Prior knowledge:
Elements: H1 3-13, H2 20-31, E1 51-54, E2 57-61
Antiparallel strand pairs: 1-2
Helix pairs in contact: 1-2
Pfam family, one: APH
Domain Aminoglycoside phosphotransferase: 9-63
Organism: Planobispora rosea
Amino acid sequence: MKFGDQVEQALDRLKGVVDVAACRAVWASALTSAWPFPPVWFHGDVAAGNLLVCDGKLSAVID
């Protein structure tokens, strides 16, 4: 399943709970956005179980 499909399913479930039209507008804007800088790594699942610490300092982010 693609992210767009998941967004549509979530918005269908959330009708009457959130402003679905506004959410769709934000999603459409996000799809056309672009990062204007050199590529970087981004970890979208920063949970305690994904963080490794050594000597009290963050040493790695895993998943």
